[in-house]
Design a protein that fits this description.
elongated, Rossmann fold, 34% helix, 404 residues, five-stranded parallel beta sheet, binds flavin mononucleotide
């Protein structure tokens, strides 16, 4: 099979970490798969592996300086315009921080700011650095920009510690680059509507009924759909996440607001993916002033919220694909299949809530069911990986392949 990397222009950024030696193998793999590779190194990277190594392996001069040879050689603007994919492996905490802040103070970071192509980052650093709030925030910001990530992996570190932060194996970096290129443009011309997060049902100006949905799963789906070329409308309940780049964000609070936004956007959506955790009930009345503490016991009367998904199922246009999520603590398969049938869905993603997966965290496990039964079990994976698996299935379904 021809690799998606064949005949592609790859920019490989190498930064200053111990794992820089692994990038030599990344260059070799890219070339073996038919890509042309230009290596851009930071000054620190050149302390770990010489530019000569990368020049010899890539067959092109490895570039390190923004200013040297500016007139004669290819500038950062030309480099960025020609690239089909920009892979940074290894990516230091420093480079990740600079990219998240838009800092452009050397050839690599300046070129990164100028590219329009898909960007893949392979972080590599000590586990305590990787665990730092700054690095976590910066990675989240880059995910929001639509950057892809390969790794990092868990394992022993060069410094003797053990944990998360090792650069992924060169073969995994190459595979991630292939996947990004293969999927780019897959959903071009399609509109995908995604819902995410909780809905909050107000009782008074300071209190509400909500749920623990963080919005991470829906945001990962929206990000992946946008990355694959879809026009994405993301209807989101209140969350503290950076909206993915390029999506049309519609912020809502309550189930009623979400219903109105979803119904408006669903009219021209080719696929609707309902990952939001919509509150089933809302307080019957909302007090405009803060409810005062009084009796030892009190009662809040709840009324049912509209079933947004069922409403969409009833009005579904021919060719429109409707995907629901079923967050379940028990009887997952039975409940998910019943929901799929009752709401006239094409696909349902059942995910267990509790333990290491589901609400809040970064991991999830999706069991996908179509009308004819079980389609796929992702196992416990990151929400980004779960989103990729889900969109692979949705893409097949939109191609007219049956959802078996
Ligand atoms: C021996 C050694 C190993 C290092 N390994 C890493 C690493 O794996 N990841 C990282 O983020 N920084 C690492 N650093 C620190 C970076 O080299 C430093 O932050 C530098 O400013 C990064 O520059 P750059 O991002 O421009 O390449 C290491 C430093 C030394 C001296």
């Amino acid at each position: 099979m021809i690799s998606p990397l064949a005949n592609k222009e790859v920019l490989l950024g190498v930064t200053g970490g111990i794992a820089a030696y692994k990038s030599a193998e990344v260059v070799r793999l890219f070339r073996e798969k038919g890509a042309s590779v230009t290596v851009v190194m930071t000054e620190s990277a050149a302390r770990f592996v010489t530019p000569l190594t990368f020049s010899a392996l890539s067959g092109r001069p490895a570039r390190t300086n923004l200013f040297d040879g500016y007139d004669a050689a290819i500038s950062h603007i030309e480099l960025s315009a020609k690239a089909d994919i920009f892979v940074v492996a290894p990516a230091t905490a420093n480079l990740i921080g600079k990219a998240a802040s838009g800092i452009a103070d050397d050839l690599l970071s300046t070129t990164l700011l100028a590219v329009k192509c898909p960007v893949l980052i392979a972080p590599a650093m000590n586990c305590r650095m990787y665990d730092s709030p700054a690095v976590k925030r910066n990675i989240e910001t880059l995910r929001g920009f639509g950057y892809g990530f390969a790794g990092p992996d868990e394992g022993p570190m060069a410094c003797g510690e053990y944990g998360w932060g090792r650069m992924s194996a060169p073969s995994a970096v190459a595979e991630a680059a292939e996947a990004m290129l293969a999927h780019a443009g897959q959903f071009a011309g399609k509109t995908v509507l995604v819902t995410a997060g909780p809905t909050l049902e107000d009782m008074d100006p300071v209190r509400f009924i909500g749920n623990r949905s963080s919005g991470r799963m829906g945001y990962a789906v929206a990000r992946e759909a946008a990355r694959r070329g879809a026009r994405v409308v993301l209807v989101s309940g209140p969350v503290s996440l950076v909206p993915p780049a390029g999506v049309e964000l519609v912020s809502v609070r309550s189930a009623l607001e979400m219903e109105a936004a979803v119904n408006a956007a669903a009219k021209d959506a080719d696929a609707v993916i309902m990952a939001a955790a919509v509150s089933d009930y809302r307080p019957e009345t909302v007090s405009h002033t803060k409810i005062k503490k009084g009796a030892d016991e009190t009662t809040v009367r709840l009324v049912k919220n509209p079933d947004i998904l069922a409403g969409l199922g009833k009005r579904k246009r021919p060719g429109q694909l409707l995907v629901g999520f079923a967050a379940e603590t028990d009887d997952q398969e039975k409940n998910a299949k019943a929901k799929l049938k009752a709401k006239r869905l094409d696909l349902i993603a059942a995910n267990p809530v509790g333990g290491e997966t589901g609400f809040g965290g970064d991991l999830n496990r999706l069991r996908l069911y179509g009308r004819a039964g079980h389609l796929l079990d992702t196992g416990v994976v990151t929400k980004a990986e779960a989103a990729r698996a889900l969109l692979d299935v949705i893409f097949d379904a939109m191609q007219g392949l049956s959802l078996k």
